[in-house]
Amino acid sequence: MKESAPAMWAMKPHTKAKHQMLDTYLKGWYPRLAKFNGRVLYFDGFAGRGKYEDGSIGSPLIALQLLLQHTYLPNMAHRDFVFIFVEAVPENAESLRNELASFEAEIGGYPSYVKVHVVETTFEDSARSLAAQLRSEKKQLAPTFALIDPFGYSGLPMDVIAELFEAQRSEVFVNFMVGHVMRFIERDGQEEAISGLFGMDSKDVMSGYKPGDDKRVEYLRDVYCQQLKAKAGFEYVRSFAMKNSSGNVSYYLVHGTRHREGVKLMKAAMWKVDPGNGAMFSDRLAGEDVLFEPTPNLYPLEAELLKKFSGTRVLVESIEWHTILETPYRETHVRPVLTPLEKRGVIKVERPGRSGFPADRTHVTFP
Predict the structure, then answer these.
(1) pTM, whole model, 2 decimals?
(2) Nearest 5 degrees, angle CA 243-CA 246-CA 247?
(3) Strands 363-365 and 348-350, sheet pairing
(4) What DSSP string runs through 27-79?
(5) 46 alpha carbon, distance to own chain's centre
(6) Model confidence over 247-283: pLDDT tens digits?
(7) Predicted confidence (pLDDT) per residue in 15-60, tens digit
(8) What is the Cβ-side half-sphere exposure of residue 93, based on CA atoms within 13 angstroms?
(9) Is residue 87 a contact partner of residue 93, using CB atoms and an 8 Å limit?
(10) What's the angle, vertex CA 347, arms to CA 342 and CA 353, rounded to 5?
(11) Does residue 8 carry a pLDDT above 70?
């Protein structure tokens, strides 16, 4: 099966934002996985050409450079890092090989513990082949971060994601092209692609949607996220909206992981791109000068913490993890909530020193 290349390879604002999130996440992901495992895998399912028209590098080179320029690299050199870049379009794959060859020559060759492979086939075929190989050898996939970033919504079946990335330390970062899905989900001839994408009968995808509801985009996102949990077994699934220049959501970046540290890292990446809400980037506002840096509204978090921990005495560490896993906020938002609550006498704080909130040694008593 061959895929057609996109007409243009211009770097759009939302692509830069996506790459910024990838950059932030991988900086924390590499050393976290290297502490515990002999092999780490970066899997790019729709790798692209390697560079954009303006010279900006694509995700394969971003991932490689981040590792090789990482300040923690000397402490990771005893691990093997395997990079698999899957690209189905022949001219794109050839361009990617050339860019990778130039990069390798520029740095004087890859270290012995870094292995790079360009696979010229579809994501689906490569994933099924790798899963079959692992089954025949009775092996489990190495801890993996998989970037699955297609140009549409076909070719990334839910059952393939579930089968290949079933290992406990595997994570996915999927571009869910909800804009395309919205336009074609009820058209004849799309049933197979829609069923594969969601891992359920295409007729059931919209079964819970109420006609006339203006939140159709959010509904489709929720169904997809629920399926990543139910079918692929990712305990924690979080999404980030990318809006186009017209103000509509083009796609969601959906992160699936089974470990809370992964949630913590991805939230840091999301809030870096959107410091006001941690949930959305808009091409319409990209590059515009603003008078004030956006700041989050922490009142909902305050209300949530007062309700959740009402009448209890808990460690700040527990409050932080609840915030990370059960709210849209980060752990860095907890102290700005607790400090004014303490000053107003709403909460009682027992700390080892005279000030601060050491997470593992500070108890908070809520009213």
Answers:
(1) 0.93
(2) 45
(3) antiparallel
(4) HHHHHHHHTT-SEEEEEETT---SB-TTS-B-HHHHHHHHHHT-TTGGGTTTS
(5) 15
(6) 899 999 999 999 999 999 999 999 999 999 999 999 8
(7) 999 999 999 999 999 999 888 768 999 999 999 999 999 999 999 9
(8) 19
(9) yes
(10) 60
(11) no
Please report where in the chains the tokens 């074609």 appear, as a residue.
184
Residue 227 tokens read as: 């399926």
CB 147 within 8 A of CB 173: yes
The CA-CA-CA angle for residues 272, 278, 280, to 5°, reads: 105
CA dist., res. 35 & res. 323, Å (int): 26
Which residue has 């406990």 as its token pair? Answer: 168
Residue 367 identity (one-letter amino acid): P
| DSSP output for 245-302 | TTS-EEEEEEEEESSHHHHHHHHHHHHHH-TTTSSEEEGGGTT---SS------HHHH
- Are 52 and 58 contacting, i.e. CB atoms less than 8 angstroms apart? yes
Torsion of CA 155, 45, 176, 323, to 10 degrees: 150
- Run of H or E including 348: strand 348-350
pLDDT of residue 342: 97
Helices (H) and strands (E) in the chain, counts: 13, 11
What the block records as the tokens of 22 is 């990838």
pLDDT in tens, 324-355: 999 999 999 999 999 999 999 999 999 999 88
Q: Indicate the residue type of 100.
A: L
CB 33 within 8 A of CB 143: yes
310 CB burial (10 A radius; 0-12, 13-18, 19+): exposed
Q: How far is CA 281 from the centre of its chain?
A: 14
Q: Are 228 and 198 in contact (CB under 8 A)?
A: no
Query: Can you give the pLDDT at residue 286?
Result: 63
In DSSP terms, 241 is beta-bridged to 252, 280
Distance CA 110, CA 104 (A): 6
- Are residues 45 and 127 in contact, defined by beta-carbon separation less than 8 angstroms? yes
The alpha carbon of 126 is separated from its chain's Cα centroid by a whole number of angstroms, namely 21
Do residues 310 and 366 make contact, with C-beta atoms less than 8 angstroms apart?
yes
- How many angstroms separate the CA atoms of 342 and 320, rounded? 16
